[in-house]
Queue: 4 jobs
Job 1
Amino acid sequence: MRDPEIRRHLRHLNYNHLLYAWTVAREGSVTAASSVLHLTPQTISGQIKQLEGVVGAPLFLRAGRGLTLSDAGRSIMPYLDEIFSLGAELAQRVHNDEGGLPSSMNVGIVNTIPKLIAYRTLAPILERDAAPRLMCYEGELEHLLAELAVHRLDLLLSDRPVPTGLSVKAYSHKLGESNMAFFARGKLAQQCSANFPDSLDKVPMLLPVASSAIRRGLDDWFNSMGIVPRVIAEFDDSALMKAFGESGVAVFPAPEAIRKEVENMYGASWIGAAEGVGEAFYAISPERKLSNPVVVEITELARLRLGGQNP
């Protein structure tokens, strides 16, 4: 294509149109994209039709109740990924060049990460003089990654890295990892501390739900040790599990990295660790090399506290 033709096409491209199409592709439907973008579905549909007029082909095909990319849509999506990745880096650079600290910092927290790990990671922000106001949002990893991609989040804390195959430019920075340990209160803790780990056999136990990665790791560890715990409750929220453990009716697991916090907050005692069964923790950012001074400080201190290594 000759330069005049390229310039003519560029004049008709609109950044918002590209953003709407990119968000619909990520969310899978106009309705879902409208929730993310805080626009009406009619507005988004109309803007995408204008973009399709410029492209000269439909970008989406109907797939049940959702949408899937057409051949034309798939061909432009890598360019949109690159555009919005560069946009995030540009926004971050401009922000940093303005000097000083931001007035607020938006952090996404994956709902499967232990709340005490999230607190330990973010606590340095609260301890700073003239610290930015911390805004925390909890949710599923995929949803939070979408929020990160459209610059509604500055940072994302997760117990797993960015999944492969997602069309989003986000980078995982490992903070550390921790073995899982077992805790209990009172007489139950004393009973289980002797002859660990055999003492866990037939003992009442609170565990994560069977679909979680940590539960699968613990089940494998139990099997290898010949232990059959008496599971009396399962949880998809680790904080709720610890709250039940505070009653003293059962043993419960938690990352060994937050042993002191668990003992102080829930009045529980450490029983022993499940060696080889652990959780890793990540900071996920829209940039490969961290430049935001607050984010850099958070990740460096978290690595010291959680024992991680620089990537």
Note: The chain has three domains: 3-91, 99-175+281-306, 177-277.
Job 2
Amino acid sequence: MILVTGAKGMLGSYVGRVFADKELCLAGRDVFDVCHFEQGADLCNQIHPQLVIHLAAETNVDYCEQDPDHAYRSNVIGTQNVARLCATHGAELVYVSTTGIFDGDKPEPYTEFDEPHPINVYGKTKWEGEKIVRQLCPHAYILRAGWVFGGGPATDKKFVGKIIQLCRENDEIKVVNDKIGSPTSAEDFVRNTRHVAESGFYGTYHLTSRGSCTRYDIACEVVKILGLKTRVTPVSSAIFPMPALRPRNDAARNYHLELLGLDRMRSWQESLADYLEDWSKGSEG
């Protein structure tokens, strides 16, 4: 039995497809709110999971900055509860973290062997979650995602979805061009999560689509792939002040997976093209 927390989120929407041949308990917050240990204990006593894929988290970076109590409760205490349940039931754990745990000062992409130094509340909570997982669960896979895209027309409220909407409503859009990161296909992430989780190589891994770019680069690629006429203008992030600081660079290299010969992630351009093709089909339907 595989228990999936946060199963109604962007990553969770792909789990049923990728793990279709497995017995799954897809637990949204209505089934298991990770902030409530006893609720999880009752569920685990019923289903006896062998693997827990912990996707539940507060991922809104600015909201985390505005309400740190909520962020720490969701991302640290919630992870502590899940890790404790895994330790109690002898279950393996997949914990999804973020490349946003780095401060952005490195000029090259970060590897798993660089020391994290988060600069916002969201990054701090995910880094604390990593430390808790290492303390409580020796049989764990810590997987760091980058700028995740996925979900489709009905659920994509993140950057790619917003760009598509803006392009449909405007002749010109302005997009930040001074922050570098690694786009990450949600579907590819889940597919490779299964691959890593079945490897037996417990540890910490970057799991991003290959390559790095700016948000401006992504927007230009979206416009090109969809054949849109919108003009994309690069601007400084100072144009769009936000509550939380962002690293100048949180691009990542899947170095640990490369060394093990386990990196099956595609380029971000290839994954984005496939995603937008599916998006177009979903919009037509």
Note: The mean pLDDT is 94.
Job 3
Amino acid sequence: MIMFSKPFRIDTTLIEDTIKTDRICGDGKYTNKCHQWMEEKFAAKKILLTTSCTHALEMAALLLDFKEGDEVIMPSFTFSSTANAFALFSAKIVFVDIRPDTMNINEELIEAAITPRTKAIVPVHYAGVACEMDIVSEIAKKHDLAVVEDAAQGVMSRYKGKALGTLGDLGCFSFHETKNYTMGEGGAIVINNERYMERSEILREKGTNRSLFLRGVVDKYTWVDIGSSYLPSDINAAYLYTQLIQADEINTNRLNSWNAYNERLSDLQQRGFIELPVIPPECTHNAHMYYIKVKNLTERTKLLSYFKKKSICAVFHYVPLHSSPAGKKYSRFFGQDNFTTKESNRLIRLPMYYGLSVTDIEYVCDSITNFFDKA
């Protein structure tokens, strides 16, 4: 069986070190090391680990002070957390269509969806490939809107040389088990706008100014704002830090697998059977996933069934949120759904993880070729 995803297997030395320190709660030794590593690597002003990317997005909604009736623009082709984090605070979700090439939000459709109630734009960097952030940022600046990057899949990816997550007012990373770098469950919020820096610490620390106290800025700490416990255990941080210090090696290994798929499947694209991922020249991706697109939903169903017979774990991805029960309740779709549903019905994600063997990649590719040759 070729698995769809496998978490990176770590040396447990740092976890054992954390346990020996008798400080395994949040913001310990390895949490701080993760913060410092990411801030330096990504040239970020401030990064804070969270218990999930979902919680990072919720923190973003809190920092932007969303109120009932406020609107936020995003693509429907994304995970529920992107929308749920804002709907949780009574925001109205406004979906716009995606680009069929990158599966990212169509930047040309954003401005027409803006109303007097719009408060933020949330671009989602699908598969670690950047949205057209220059245009997104220009629109946001023109209309005085915040930009929150959902960079859950974008750790180590760049847009015109700049790290994803650092291009908006706020950015959100995921370190879930299925991501390139993992802490089991976890995430991070990137604070690029200085106006949110102090309050981000307060929200993350149950609404207290404990972080200021620990730095000696205040002589005691107390409850000063709303908030929650968004801090992951230092054990989780140690698990993550073990990978961060090997991040370039992990990235290279995944890119090699991505390139092997791309080269091996190019003939099927030339023959018109499938479409391969598109990477715009201004984007440097992180090989978070490799996907193909087939003709339609019927063909995808047949190919996925064929994969099961061949012991290959491949999956489809998001069901567009606007078609879901919650989506119908908390959102509206602006304009026409020309590509969101159509393209999502065609997409299949292939096995991708650190250490995926060339032999397994060739087996997957040969299986796809055999499927179409026999069709």
Note: The radius of gyration is 21 Å.
Job 4
Amino acid sequence: MGQSWRGFQDRFTQKSVVTTVKTRSEPTSLQDITALGKVELVTVAEAINGVSKDFVRGDMIAAAKRKTSDGTTVYSWDLAVAPSVCGADEQFGGALGCSYDRIGLFAAAVKNGKLVTIEVLANADEWRGKGISLRALRDSFDFT
């Protein structure tokens, strides 16, 4: 069971703030998220069912492990994805590849026999303007 929200806009500028926010809670046999291994070695696709195929191939920018106030361990990942074909105006195209155009912020924890997850997906413009706030959104998620 999960929820998904789309189209958050800044109330003053009316510009898009984030593409999508998804939360899920599904039964799991895991006792704790750490059963998957070290956070930096676990892929998001291993931890979270149904991750967009784009983010399965995304580059891991950051991975972290933290504890909530009740002692629940939370794994989080920041992933970036570049388009498969660079745009005509792409300054880093060619051998270096394309610039990232999508960012995915993910977090997962096991709570009461359920795998609880959040995904915050943004495009490059949303990320440039609100990256710190988007991380704060993901990191403030209540895993209860």
Note: The chain has a mean pLDDT of 86.
